[in-house]
Amino acid sequence: MSAEESLRSKKARLTRNALHEAAITRVLEDGLACATVATIAADAGVSTRTFFNYFETKEDAIVGLGAEVGVDEGLAFDYVHSPAGLDTLAEDTARFVREALLVGSVDPKLPARRRRLFALYPELVSKSFDRAEELEEIVTGHVLDRLRHLGQEFSSEDSAWRSARMLTQLCRVPLNHAGQVIKADPEAVEDKGGTQAIFEDSLNLFRKVLDRLP
Asked: What pTM did the predictor assign?
């Protein structure tokens, strides 16, 4: 992957994230019916034409369900081709899952704002599930590539895919646990200095649980 491609990928991700956050802000301020693609695009500093390069509707922008749902190429490459072995596979996969499934925002209040939106507009919940399922499918493909990179063999393609999917779902546990911690105590984000620290605590607990298994 060239440096130019990496920069282009980063710019696209930042634009997608800016539109996602602008959509959430605009809907919370004006309401779902009054928020428009034009105002969301203007808030993000892009044209409506650029908006439609990333999202088909304002509802898609709110939940981050883009026309090209995917995982950053550099992130996926580094995960798949890591020199680490099987001993750190679960930890590496948990970190990869977190980076891949979360819309990269520097705003620690974004998850709480999303939950507020879903409470106000339950019809958006199904779209959120759609996004998570699409991303999980893509992530599972990269997890399978990592397993094969490590020399793992499978009896069939179906067995390989099911194994990769199970590992992906298992390694979502630290992310889900961190989300529950934040939901139960939103002030923990500030107390811990950000969501990353809460995730690391959950990941440490995850490792301990795995180490105790026979």
From this structure: 0.67
58 three-class SS: helix
How confident is the model over 79-115, as pLDDT tens digits? Answer: 999 999 999 999 999 999 888 776 444 455 666 777 7
**Do the beta carbons of residue 178 and residue 198 sit within 8 Å?**
yes
| Core vs surface per residue 147-183: b (16+ CB within 10 A) or e | beeeeeeeeeeeebbebbbebbeebbbbbebbbebbe
List the alpha helices (DSSP H) in the chain: 3-30, 37-44, 48-54, 58-63, 73-80, 89-101, 110-120, 125-149, 157-170, 173-184, 188-192, 195-212
- Cα–Cα distance, 147 to 207 (Å, whole number): 19
Tokens of 52: 């439609």
Distance CA 80, CA 1 (A): 14
- Match 């995982």 to its residue by tokens: 71
Q: How many alpha carbons fall within 13 Å on the CB side of residue 167?
A: 25
Count of residues making up the chain:
214
